[in-house]
Design goal:
Length: about 180
């Protein structure tokens, strides 16, 4: 029997002995490479994909006050997670309806926004939507909802909202 760093044979692969725990060398090397690649991050999950529904009507934009973390108490666009098998445009329509009761038609995709923090990473796709019907009513995971002119926005705002609003109301939606 060999002694030293590697000891024994486990189904044809060498095993690493650490005290009483035995793991294959391959798994140990993969974890070591992951740690080196990810730095000190403790989460190895891939980023989540979410949507933001950007709806302008009569020179005003619809905003909601978030009830849940990570941006609880802040004002932002209606939106949320893209479900498996769901298109980004369909997710924006669904989230807008669930959070505000507004019906809108997706018009265009805007520049992607990333939200990163301790233990979380989201890739958010803002979807420009043309208002069709409805009045904003808080539902689902929001406390308040309403139409706001760009020069009188509520505070505090969600991170990244100002960059999306900077483009202003599009001409295609009739705002």
């Amino acid at each position: 029997m060999s002694t030293g760093f590697f000891r024994g044979v486990f189904f044809g692969r060498k095993t690493l002995v650490e005290g009483r725990q035995r793991r294959t060398v391959g798994a140990w090397l993969v974890r070591r490479k992951q740690r080196a690649f990810m730095g000190t991050r403790s989460v190895y999950a891939p980023p989540g994909v979410g949507v933001l529904a950007v709806v302008w009507h009569a020179g005003r934009v619809v905003l909601v006050r978030r009830r849940n973390a990570p941006q609880a108490g802040r004002w932002g666009f209606p939106g949320g997670r893209v479900e498996p098998g769901e298109s980004v445009r369909a997710a924006a329509q669904r989230e807008l309806w669930e959070e505000t009761g507004i019906r809108a038609r997706p018009v265009a995709l805007l520049e992607v926004v990333e939200a990163m923090g301790e233990g979380m990473h989201w890739v958010l796709v803002p979807v420009l939507c043309a208002w069709e019907s409805g009045v904003p009513v808080a539902a689902s995971d929001v406390d308040q909802a309403g139409w706001f002119p760009p020069d009188a926005l509520p505070t505090p705002l969600c991170d990244g909202l100002a960059a999306i609003l900077h483009a202003g109301p599009p001409r295609e939606t009739g705002a």
